[in-house]
Amino acid sequence: MNNRIDAPIVLEERPSRAGRPILDLILGSGWRFPLAMSIVMLGLMGLGMALGVSFIPYGPWHHAGSFASRLLSWDGNWYFEIASNGYAWNPAVGMQLGHYQNVDFYPLYPLIERVVMVITGNGSPEMMVALCLALGVASVFAFHRLARRVLPADAAKCATAIYAFWPATIYFAMGYPTGLINLCALAALSAYVERRYWRAALWCGIGTGVAPTLVFVAIGLCLDQGIAWLRGTRDVREVPRLIGFGLLTVIGLIGFIIFQGIALHDPLAFIKAQEAWGTSPPFLVRLHRFFSPGWYATLPGGGLRTFAKDFHAWRAGAPFTPLMWKNLEFGEQFVLNGITLILGIIGLIAAWRRVRPPALPLAALVVMLGYLWFIVTTNQNLQATPRLIFPAAALFLGLGAFRGRWIYGLLLGLLAILSVINAAFLPTGYWLV
Prior knowledge:
By secondary structure, the protein is an all-alpha fold. It is globular. It is about 65% helix and about 0% strand. Helix 2 packs across helix 6 (about 125-150) and helix 9 (about 195-205) runs parallel beside helix 11. It has helices at about 20-25, 30-55, 65-70, 75-85, 110-120, 125-150, 155-165, 180-195, 195-205, 215-230, 240-250, 250-265, 270-275, 285-290, 295-315, 320-355, 360-375, 385-390, 395-400, 405-425.
């Protein structure tokens, strides 16, 4: 794919290897700031968890066990179960509501967990949480590397801070593949910025074996390649290369489909298994929801009403019952989802104006649209927003443009508070998906 016509990307000059500190050689010269942000990120998690176990009563999903086993929750338990016992698929009940089966989850992350189990001889929740955290910290470094290549130095630091303060970082401690998803997306985008298009396609393809989110990044990169071809030579001899690029960007998903066809005798079992979580509304209903502001406000508005109700009860002298705590946490999640969606849109708009090459905001836009269509227009509405739009890296690059303004400090403070609150509800047995 050498027919690109983007303005040249000027990469920072690097000093000679002689005399460079060992960490500079391993991580690159820009390791200090992402290391500091990773420490702050882990500190916010630790502070939230400490406050949670000190002041919040156990929630409805609390269970006995080690502290790490309580962190390894929800989807994290599904991945852990796949790593321990493999996939299972019963087509007789696989599409019935409530008959959840683990084939719904993509294979690369539990495969890595399995490899770690075999190499270390340790399949404990502590090891799985440590793996998850390590990938999350690595993604902070990967993001900073990308930001330094497309933004001025101060803006890159600001964008990295926002990434590290983002409330979805709590999933780095829950056994979710969030860190690995982000690493694959960031590696693909970084390679694309450097015009190493086949490497970008490969990283993206690997990511599609981790989660469906990377399919949207793949679509964005393929669209950018197609636009460049239409604006350039339009040489039909390039078409096979474009097709090859597109196939490579989804090679992980293709491999998963082939595996299911061989091992489970159904190449689309993972799609059918999703029916257990609920069927999708009709197309016209989803189309109406997609363009309806009222639909987007439903859950955040309900969250605010929950806050108001609990506050009035507390003012009237009522103690905070376990049910009130549960409702409060639900409300916090709904408000958080609305806030992060708004911030994502603001960051994306800013990225369109400031971030080059345009493939980065284009990929982020496709991630955002994919989330809105495949999640928000269903009955799940605004659910898991900060986690599912996390790979839209350009939104953080765009938010970094607010550096030097009072609103940037306010934004960091807001994200830090939300991250602490999220972390507080994690070890005490509440709903964090």
